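Tokens as discussed.
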């Protein structure tokens, strides 16, 4: 652990003690090993956010945005396009990164091959797909077997998206997910204009704007609580949209809800309403004072409940 992390761990430990005394008891981390594991998960979540903020400042090779390259990375590609002024493309790549996810074994290969049209000279970039989503569905249907490994190349959805369907024409498959996303943006309206429309209604409040977009994303097929949260928080971290979460959106959550019951009540079997947990998490976020605090809490609590007494790093 670096000196910076040691200092942060001490600060978090002090603030958790204050919260326990002044706001709400935290029986789930009363045991020293549980407390240490929870603090370690908080720090690990901070690291993931710092990573995105860091790559925003680094030089990025154009090969990161080239789906014909083994270096292709949709998130770095989004940053690269943002710098070139291709804002819609940046948003689109963030959406694809969330819809397909990064697989622990095959990385970004699935999104790379679909975005890159399996090596075709014409990628399925925003300009192409947003004007002809029907053509994309036809292409996807034609190449579905290959994309599922028929050519011997392994391509998989990320762990959080492992139940997502690649199907071109089903009501819940990738074809409908992408077409519903295009309808959500509603070209020729741009992504920036979409955000601005919500921002005006939210009186330019970053958290209210996030909330407005979150609820509008219900229109996107296959985008559940986690996907909506991940997509919007990534837009905020990348500086693509002036938004940040003011809630963990506990309604519909599984891991974060279980972890929160363990943290605040000491038992996962306690019956609680999600609104009670949201209130306590808002108070805890204010006490901890971490940048992107709600995302840190959502991520850390979800991972901590998988191994409450021993820190384990979870990816994907």
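Sequence:
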């Amino acid at each position: 652990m670096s000196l910076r992390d040691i200092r942060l761990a001490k600060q978090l430990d002090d603030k958790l003690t204050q919260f326990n005394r002044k706001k709400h008891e935290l029986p789930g981390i009363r045991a020293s090993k549980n407390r240490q594991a929870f603090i370690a998960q908080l720090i690990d979540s901070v690291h993931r956010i710092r990573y995105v903020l860091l790559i925003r400042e680094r030089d990025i090779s154009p090969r990161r945005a080239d789906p014909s390259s083994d270096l292709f990375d949709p998130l770095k590609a989004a940053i690269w396009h943002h710098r070139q002024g291709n804002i819609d493309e940046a948003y689109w790549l963030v959406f694809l990164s969330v819809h397909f996810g990064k697989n622990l074994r095959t990385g970004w290969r699935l999104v790379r091959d679909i975005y890159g049209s399996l090596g075709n000279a014409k990628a399925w970039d925003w300009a192409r797909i947003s004007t002809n989503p029907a053509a994309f569905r036809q292409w996807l249907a034609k190449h579905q077997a290959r994309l599922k490994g028929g050519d011997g190349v392994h391509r998989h959805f990320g762990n959080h998206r492992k139940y997502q369907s690649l199907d071109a024409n089903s009501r819940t498959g990738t074809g409908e997910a992408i077409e519903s996303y295009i309808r959500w943006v509603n070209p020729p309206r741009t992504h920036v204009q979409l955000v601005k429309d919500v921002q005006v209604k939210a009186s330019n409040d970053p958290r209210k704007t996030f909330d407005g977009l979150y609820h509008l994303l219900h229109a996107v097929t296959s985008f559940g609580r986690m996907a909506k949260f991940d997509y919007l928080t990534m837009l905020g971290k990348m500086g693509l949209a002036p938004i940040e979460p003011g809630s963990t959106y506990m309604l519909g959550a599984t891991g974060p809800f279980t972890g929160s019951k363990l943290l605040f009540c000491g038992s996962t079997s306690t019956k609680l309403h999600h609104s009670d947990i949201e209130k306590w998490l808002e108070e805890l976020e204010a006490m901890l004072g971490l940048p992107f605090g709600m995302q840190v809490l959502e991520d850390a609590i979800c991972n901590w409940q998988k191994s409450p007494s021993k820190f384990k790093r979870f990816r994907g």
